[in-house]
Amino acid sequence: MPLDEQGADSAPPPSTILVVEPDILVRMVIASYLRDCGYTVFEGVSAADVMAVLGSGKKIDVVLAEVQLCGEVDGFRLARCVREQYPDVDVILTTGARRAADKASDLCEDGPLEKPYHPQEIARRINLLRERRRTAAQA
Predict the structure, then answer these.
(1) Which 3 state secondary structure label does DSSP give 135?
(2) Over the stretch 101-138, which tens digit does the pLDDT of each residue have?
C-alpha cells in the first residue's frame, strides 16, 4: 500500500530501502514500485554494494536482497553481516529457490519472500518491519 494511503496521522516518515538484485529487470520493477510508494530507494547488485552504502553513513532502514547475489558473498551471509554490524537495519531476503527460502527463514522476521512475488507484498513487509521498530522504540 502506498504511504499516502495509510492516513496522515499514522504514517511513519518515509523509509529508505536498499534493493539488491542482480537481475536488472527485477530490480528496476521493484525499485520503481517502491519509489512510487514514497520510499527513497538505492540500488545494488552485490553484498559489496550494500556494505559500501551502509559504510557511507547513509540512513538505510531496510535492505531487500536476493539470496543469490553477484560476488563471493550470498544473501545469507550478507544478512548476518548486516544484523551484526548494523542492528538498526532490517533485512528482507528474496529467492526463487525453495531450499534457500527454508534456510533464510531464521534470518528474516516473517521468512523470505519467494519469487515470483508481488511488489505490493514487498511494501507490506517493509511497512510491517518499520512499524515493529517504531513500536519497540516507544516501549
Answers:
(1) helix
(2) 455 555 555 666 777 778 888 888 888 888 888 888 88
Give 92's contacts (C-beta < 8 A, 6+ positions apart).
Answer: 62, 63, 64, 65, 108, 112, 113, 122, 125, 126, 129
DSSP 46: B
Burial, 138: exposed, middle or buried (Cβ in 10 Å; 0-12, 13-18, 19+)?
Answer: exposed
Reduced to 3 states (helix: H, G, I; strand: E, B; else coil), residue 18 is: strand
Indicate the SS3 state at residue 77: helix
Q: Map grid coordinates 554494494 to a residue.
A: 49
Residue 19: other Cβ atoms inside 10 A: 27
Confirm if 77 and 52 have CB atoms less than 8 A apart: no
- Nearest one of 55, 95, 60, 63 to 79, comparing CA atoms: 63
Hey, what domains does the chain have and what are their CATH numbers? 12-138 (3.40.50.2300)
- Grid cell of 70 as nine digits: 553477484
pTM: 0.74
| pLDDT single digits (tens) 58-73 | 999 999 999 888 889 9
Query: In 3D, which of 97, 128, 127 has the Cα closest to residue 113?
Result: 97
